[in-house]
Amino acid sequence: MAEQTLALPLLILAAGKSRRFGSEDKRFTALPHGGELINALVRRGRKAGLDVYVVLDPADDVSAQIDAPCIFAPNAGVGMGASIADAVGIFAERSDAEALLIMPADLPLLRVESLRRVAERTAVQRIVIPTFEAKRGHPIAFGREYWPALSKLSGDEGGRSVIASARSEFVDIIELNDEGICLDADTPEQMSALLLKLRPVLR
């Protein structure tokens, strides 16, 4: 990754392949209107004005198939929390950004506008969490103040403990009209059902 990144980074967590997805790799699910899921999410992040990076397990190097810079998380095999910790640790050293956004790689319906809305609310001391009908989703933005805590995550623990430890006045909950922020897919059947809702242009 480039040194001293100033734009807001978006980290797409793609360091694991779901066992429930069988032999298929859901990161590269073919979309109805062309392209593959992970690269579609990369494009949406860029359309939202974000500096997109994909987090991978070095033992599963698929970076040649991804249209974005990739960050290798040495401890990705331990769990999602370890992947976050490795990736955020890299950005803490190399980026001057005031915040970063984090999301999983299995949100096929996520809209570009939702990414923009979260990014617009970021601040050094703020955590921004999008919701749809009161259900929390992604991406979640963490101000730089929370990066040291994120870099200490371990196992399969996500950012919940960091959010729970933050003062409530610095946790910004924003309601979005986008069910795609919380509709992920753990099985091929779930992915197929979501893709039936996918439209040619996600705004």
TrEMBL record:
Domain MobA-like NTP transferase: 11-165
Protein keywords: Magnesium
Matching CDD domains: GT_2_like_f
InterPro entries, alphabetized: MobA-like_NTP_Trfase
Record carries keyword Cytoplasm: no
Highest taxon of source: Bacteria
Record-given protein name: Nucleotidyltransferase family protein
